[in-house]
Specification:
The complex is a heterodimer of chains A (265) and B (319). Chain A is of the alpha/beta class and 265 residues long. Chain A has helices at residues 53-60, 90-96, 111-121, 128-138, 142-145, 158-171, 188-201, 214-220, 244-249, 254-260, and strands at residues 13-24, 27-38, 42-46, 70-78, 81-82, 97-100, 176-180, 206-210, 223-230, 235-243. Helices cover 34% and strands 27% of the residues of chain A. The radius of gyration of chain A is 18 Å and the shape is globular. The chains are: A alpha/beta (265), B mainly alpha (319).
Chain lengths: 265, 319
């Protein structure tokens, strides 16, 4: 799979957002997002600070529930089931939709336990050693850490820590992986490694990534969604969504064009 | 340079004063006075400690050099009867440890549970109600706790276990009440340790599909373990040193027993009873309470050192 080839959708959607509004208390941070995330593709959310892209991302696996006053209206459908229905357990949602955070946040446990813990609480009963190795291999970290699995995950470099966090997310065998600016704390080489890794992972997982870095979105994603804050009510909104190549070379909306050509933001 | 300078206002008045004069040190009297005052405050507390250690050591030396008691007898004996020249500190130390262990059995699980609840579960509103209540608990005078043990806890124990099993004065009721007394200390220190664990670790756990309980017990608690251990050790020191409750409720007579329902006198309880009575100042009895005090001091000192060590060396680095 090349980054330049135009990706074709297989017609399946991993998640569908319908009329999604996100609130913090009485403040509406994001309004009226309608979006279909393509299965086994990388979708990038871009936009200037405060445009709500991270808020939308965190709505996808109900992480906003953890913020006091955080609330989502509208529907987010996973295989037809609304994740915000009354009978949905957010813990079950997060087991299927994993997350990698802005700052690498490994547990203060051994590398092995970092991976094994998530699988264990998810009821994994198989061969844990195998799962750990397989997850670390998928995250392109195995060769660097195979001799020190019992050492603390915090002893690794920032880039390795972030790949450990990706391995940890993979180990729970989610359907979708959300990444909230996963490279913002990393140097360019580590960033490229994560991007290469994403291209590998997307064969098996649907990936949604929030990034400030437009080159990254252009390089690494198949689809791009551009968000912007509406100045009238300070709520973020989805301005344009489409195939990455098309959005970057031939944006339909004037505001998208202004942003990607660097006229602001 | 000419171009750049032309747009700025001239600074002739400033440049006329010599730069050496401008930068010269000038005395700041207020600053010096405050510094001296703060130093004296610090010195007073240190000197007080030194003074206490000196007095304890001096009087203890008189006790041990009196010829009436050997160090071996003091540290191994189980009978404390000054009237017949028996000074075995285990009679008192045993009661101290019984009370402390009972207090810990009450305070540690309860304090930890309160801390986990406050830090991981409670909403802001519940916290704002519960924390002040705990602080009130910490503000109750210990003499009140003493009578609470004697007039409430002991009857409760006697109701449960029977009047013939539980004596009126007993170490169990004193221990339980001391446990309640140090509960706010344990819970507030443990809560500080839990709250210091960065939110990013909780997010990571929740993001993996962990429940609140899994996150609290398996991620946050291990990350805070050094702070919690330190809280426990400080609580143990506090329980060992607690005086009023044991003086009122535990019993007034040294007794070497492992039965928590029997009366026994702790080290602190003994000191307070003897020093309250009419003892002549140069008697061996009088000197003996300094020796007990010195042992108490050493125990708490060692515990404090352990606690500092635990905090420094077993800190799970989480960043």
């Amino acid at each position: 799979m090349s980054t330049t080839g135009v990706p074709t959708s297989n017609g399946k959607y991993a998640l569908e957002l319908q009329d999604v509004h996100c609130y913090y208390g009485s403040f509406r941070a994001v309004k009226d997002v309608n979006l279909k995330l393509h299965d086994k593709k990388i979708t990038a959310f871009i936009g200037p600070s405060g445009c709500g892209k991270s808020t939308v991302l965190r709505a996808l696996n109900r992480m906003n529930d953890l913020i006091p006053g955080g609330r989502v209206e509208g529907r987010i459908l996973l295989r037809g089931k609304n994740l915000y229905d009354q009978d949905v357990d957010p813990v079950e949602v997060r087991r299927r939709i994993g997350m990698v955070f802005q700052k690498p946040n490994p547990f203060p446990k051994s590398i092995f336990d970092n991976i094994a813990w998530g699988a264990k609480i998810n009821g994994f009963k198989g061969n844990m050693k195998e799962l750990v190795e397989q997850s670390l291999r998928s995250a392109a970290l195995w060769d660097e850490v195979k001799d020190k699995l019992d050492q603390s995950g915090l002893g690794l470099s920032g880039g390795q820590q972030q790949r450990l966090c990706i391995a940890r997310a993979i180990a729970t065998q989610p359907e979708i992986i959300l990444m909230d600016e996963p490279c913002s704390a990393l140097d360019p080489i580590a960033t490229l490694k994560i991007e290469d890794l994403m291209r590998e992972l997307v064969k098996n997982y649907t990936i949604v990534i929030v990034t400030h870095n437009m080159q990254q979105a252009a390089r690494a994603s198949d689809y791009t969604a551009y968000y912007l804050m509406d100045r009238s009510d300070r709520a973020g909104e989805l301005v344009e969504y489409g195939e990455t190549d098309q959005l970057f070379t031939n944006p339909k909306d004037k505001r998208t064009e202004d942003y990607i050509t660097g006229r602001f933001g | 340079m000419a171009v750049g300078a032309s747009s700025r206002p001239e600074v002739t008045s400033q440049t006329e004063v010599d730069i050496t004069t401008q930068l010269r040190k000038h005395p700041r009297v207020g600053e010096t006075l405050i510094e001296a005052f703060l130093f004296i405050c610090g010195a007073v507390s240190i000197l007080t400690t030194v003074g206490i250690v000196f007095v304890l050591a001096e009087e203890s030396l008189l006790f041990f050099t009196s010829g009436e008691v050997s160090l071996t007898e003091f540290f191994t004996g189980t009978v404390w009867q000054p009237a017949i020249g028996q000074f075995g500190i285990w009679a008192l130390m045993n009661a101290t440890f019984t009370v402390t262990i009972i207090a810990m059995i009450v305070a540690l699980p309860l304090g930890l549970a309160v801390a986990i609840y406050l830090s991981e579960y409670a909403s802001l509103r519940v916290r704002s109600i519960l924390k002040p209540i705990l602080e009130v608990l910490a503000g109750i005078p210990t003499v009140v706790y003493g009578y609470f043990a004697l007039t409430f806890m002991t009857p409760v124990l006697r109701n449960i276990f029977g009047d013939n099993v539980v004596q009126i004065y007993n170490t169990a009721s004193a221990g339980i009440v001391i446990g309640i007394l140090i509960l706010p200390l344990v819970s507030s220190m443990a809560e500080d340790a839990l709250s210091a664990v960065p939110g990013s670790l909780r997010q990571a756990a929740f993001g993996l599909g962990a429940t609140k309980l899994e996150t609290a017990v398996q991620v946050v608690l291990p990350a805070a373990v050094s702070g919690i251990a330190a809280a426990f050790i400080v609580a143990i020191s506090r329980a060992i040193g607690e005086t009023m409750v044991v003086a009122i409720a535990a019993g007034a007579g040294p007794k070497f027993t492992f039965n928590p329902f029997e009366a026994a006198e702790t080290m602190t309880g003994h000191i307070v009873r003897i020093s309250g009575g009419d003892l002549s100042y140069d008697s061996i009895d009088y000197n003996s309470i300094f020796a007990i005090g010195l042992v108490l001091f050493c125990i708490t000192l060692v515990l404090n050192i352990i606690s500092r060590y635990v905090v420094a060396h077993f800190r799970e680095e989480y960043e």
